[in-house]
Amino acid sequence: MEVTVNVNGVDQTHEIEGRLLLVHFLRDTVGLTGTHWGCDTSNCGTCVVWMDEEPVKSCTVLAAMAEGHRVRTVEDLEQDNVLDPVQQGFIQEHGLQCGFCTPGMLMTSRALLDRNPNPSEDEIREAISGQICRCTGYSMIVRSVQWAANYESAVTIGSAS
Amino acid sequence: MTVTEDPQSSEGLSPEGNPMGFGKMLRKEDARLVRGMGNFCDDVVLPGMLHLAILRSPVAHANIVSIDKSAAEAHPKVVAVVTGADLAEHGLAWMPTLSNDVQAVLATDKVRFQYQEVAFVVAEDKYSARDALELIEVEYDILPAVMDVRKAMDPETAVIRTDLDGKTDNHCFDWETGDAAETDAAFARADVVVSQEIIYPRVHPAPMETCGCVADMERVSGKLTLWSTTQAPHAHRTVYALVAGIPEHKIRVIAPDIGGGFGNKVPIYPGYVCSIVASLLIGKPVKWMEDRTENLVSTGFARDYVMNGDICATKDGKILAVRGEVLADHGAFNGVAAPVKYPAGFFGVFTGSYDLEAAYSSMKAVYTNKAPGGVAYACSFRITEAVYFVERLVDCLAYELDMDPAELRIKNFIQPEQFPYETKTGWTYDSGNYEPTMRKALDMAGYDELRAEQVEKRANGELMGIGVTFFTEAVGAGPRKDMDILGLGMADGCELRVHPTGKAVVRLSVKTQGQGHETTFAQIIAEEIGIPPEDIDVVHGDTDNTPFGLGTYGSRSTPVSGAAAALVARKVKDKAQIIASGMLEVSVADLEWVKGSFHVKGDPSKSVTIQDIAMKAHGAGDLPEGIEGGLEAQICYNPENLTYPFGAYICVVDIDPGTAEVKVRRFIAVDDCGTQINPMIIEGQVHGGLADGIGMALMEMISFDEDGNCLGGSLMDYLIPTALETPDWETGSTVTPSPHHPIGAKGIGESATVGSPAAVVNAVVDALKPFGIRHADMPLTPSRVWQAMQGNHTPPI
């Protein structure tokens, strides 16, 4: 079957098998390997991307289900050679070690801050609780998201004044 | 020398604002990883690449009667289907393990654990490869599965290793350490003797990236390139050369970005060998990546020790001796990755941080119908088991003596003036100053206030527990006179080249799996020769481009390879000094090193920088007599001893009396890993290990039913902590340098995994004290805690 999925602002039209998972479509068909695969059961969240503005586990979405939707991956976070504040936050606060879960964590964090610019620690933990990081023990991921939130609120205040 | 103080950052910053050596520095590797531009194994795509999938046994123990692969071969997208019989024709059906046992690459005679490799398919795409697995017909004649480690040696039990000549039982090996008679004598004169069975269940490292590889055998040159999820690329290359008969110079092992290792990526798995064979047979690159179930059920597990412990003391709490008797479940093949002379790994450090009069332990290891492995999951070669064993025993003793567990530990610590300290089991602890570290943790926790709060809570029927542990690690394997893996000495090479413009490249034999080597090794070189860390490229994970060494596991990168990096830099600096003496026309002895440049003593205006010297070394004009051009060096570092990091951990839990759910309220960790290279990275290493500890203590277990079916085969069943089960960690540190390490560093990678499980369990058991409970076995799930509250002890195995 032929599908057209808008990935990071570009329409991707490909002939695929109906059973192809979105994560494999992104990685193998489109060639965007920033999105990772880590389990078969929707538990680990390394595969989180956005479908429209909603984070989804792309191992649990068929590529065919993304037909006509907008998919955003980690490769789209950096704009005009400027890192998204969540990317910068993960660097500043050591929010990653091996980096395998990081793309999924970044996409979830970005979605959280878009809805809730000033989340509490509990809200951040809740937001990333569907994802597993085996390296960091999560505290530094929480701090990374807080760094991004603080950065964005400082920028917002700065531009308003 | 032993000092205890908070770590200080080095003075001065580089042009890019980084420390000119040790201190907090943001990681170099992050730039690609936050952009999704890492290059993990599954990201490697080669022209014409095929995909391999493995057919695995659905049962734990069975004779293979027949295999019919014709339907799979007829699949239009299948290129090859290979069975054990096919491999046997080439002498490749079996391979050596890292413990001098053998393991089936593909089963020929029978299967010995669930998910053992039986056949593989190579197809044009990965979906078709998996489809074709369904078309292979295997007839199994099912045998009784040996799943209960306690019954493995019963005479009527089925023999698993019928492949070994004359094997009539499931015995794997016996081991002992310490002095049995001295220990018995100490027990005879003790006032108090406490005995406890302590079980460390089977757990799994479960890195977020599963294992896999891409094998590319180039037909004309005969060169094999293997992109592989390996923590030890050089050791793997040598083993492939020995197993497959490919000349070693025709093998290039590349470990690209690794999505977590934790020991899971030390062994050589059949899938790697199958991929190599497939590429060899077909002449095209072949990719194999496990799925999560394959990773959890078939690859290197950890622990699985049943430990019977005794501890004895005087009535006022002076511990005299510790005795152990361990039953070790090694699975179907002895695939332990530990130094050859240490079949029990470093379990011998079970004497802990205490000054004992005697100690002894015996161990019986057996085969069962479970996956092979044994040393994995950030355990420093079984020290996790050893620390858990002694730290539970000490708490049991505190319970019986009705003593505070922190006070009991402090009373028995090895004293600072006793270092280097020879333990009763023959380990020489290099340096330590335990009490200040413990006191710091107690202060951070507000220990006395916590105990007061606990008294109040107990009066109200609330369940609050405070767990205290103190651990001593033994890392940095190891001195080559004692330690080797398959005959390869556990030393590590390092090469440093300074380019004409003063930029540098350092090449390592070890391989990061997230520990940040690209940053910390640049910092070590910067500290030694004053080249800014951003000007130093760190090359690792490629056997064609790095010197030989045994790789990253057992927290050995900093203690071994880190020492190599410091010493190779000093070798370069020595040569730089001679060149500087020529440039400044003074004798070598008249030069003084101030980080980054040599000065003439007494005349600081006359100086040359390391960058000036590099250009001179490569430039025109004469160099001092006998000095070759260039500014580079290579060494191989052989550690004279292990290093012994230590730490004090305090865990505070609350248990819901209605649901028996354990909530970790606080976790305080004070670590001493000697000299600190990058405190930010050290804190990160500790955090990760603490989460592991909560996972093992409360959630994680690879269990089986009596037929041998693995019950922890997915992340729905094998529970790993998320951000909701983990607290905001409270960490601190003390610094007691290693006397024999060139920069005094000891390593930190596994300290928290080693030390934290006991802290959590001690806290839970402490919370359950009103129920008269002295011990409960991991994982302390709500059902297991509930059973304990009802007076039912439920061992996990």
Structure characteristics:
heterodimer, A: 161 residues, alpha+beta, Ubiquitin-like (UB roll), DNA polymerase, domain 1, 2 domains, five-stranded mixed beta sheet, 14% strand, globular, B: 797 residues, seven-stranded mixed beta sheet, six-stranded mixed beta sheet, 18 helices, 33 strands, 25% strand
Name given to the CATH homologous superfamily of the largest domain in chain A: [2Fe-2S]-binding domain
Describe the oligomeric state of these chains in a short phrase: heterodimer
Rg of chain B to the nearest angstrom?
27 Å
Helix tally of chain B? 18
CATH architecture of the largest domain in chain A: Orthogonal Bundle
How much of the sequence lies in strands of chain A comes to 5-15%
Share of residues in helices of chain A: 25-40%
Average pLDDT of chain A:
96
Question: What is the top-level CATH class of the largest domain in chain A?
Answer: Mainly Alpha
End-to-end span of chain B in angstroms? 46 Å
Per DSSP, the total helix count of chain A is 5
* Tally of separate domains of chain A: 2
**What spatial form of chain B do the alpha-carbon principal axes imply?**
globular
Can you count the beta strands of chain B? 33
Shape of chain A: globular
Mean pLDDT of chain B: 96
The SS-based structural class of chain A is alpha+beta
- The unreliable regions of chain B are 1-10
Radius of gyration of chain A: 16 Å
Task: Describe, in short, the structure shown.
Chain A is an alpha+beta fold and 161 residues long. Chain A has helices spanning 22-29, 85-92, 102-115, 121-127, 139-160; strands spanning 2-7, 10-15, 48-51, 54-57, 70-72. Chain B has 797 residues and is an alpha+beta fold.
Q: Which secondary structure elements does this structure contain, and how are they paired or packed?
A:
The complex is a heterodimer of chains A (about 160) and B (about 800).
Chain A: E1 2-7, E2 10-15, H1 22-29, E3 48-51, E4 54-57, E5 70-72, H2 85-92, H3 102-115, H4 121-127, H5 139-160
Parallel strand pairs in A: 1-5
Antiparallel strand pairs in A: 1-2, 3-4, 3-5
Helix pairs in contact in A: 2-5
Chain B: H1 30-33, E1 50-56, E2 62-68, H2 70-73, E3 78-83, H3 84-89, E4 94-96, E5 102-104, E6 110-111, E7 117-123, H4 126-133, E8 137-142, E9 171-178, H5 180-188, E10 192-203, E11 212-218, E12 223-228, H6 233-244, E13 251-254, H7 270-282, E14 286-289, H8 292-298, E15 301-313, E16 319-329, E17 358-366, E18 373-374, H9 383-401, H10 405-412, E19 421-422, E20 428-429, H11 434-445, H12 447-459, E21 463-472, E22 484-485, E23 488-489, E24 492-498, E25 504-508, H13 517-529, E26 536-539, H14 557-584, E27 591-594, E28 597-600, E29 603-609, H15 610-618, E30 632-637, E31 646-655, E32 662-672, H16 679-698, E33 730-733, H17 751-767, H18 782-789
Parallel strand pairs in B: 1-14, 12-13, 15-18, 16-17, 25-26, 32-33
Antiparallel strand pairs in B: 1-7, 2-6, 2-8, 3-7, 4-5, 9-17, 10-15, 11-12, 11-14, 15-16, 19-20, 21-31, 22-23, 24-25, 24-30, 27-28, 28-29, 31-32
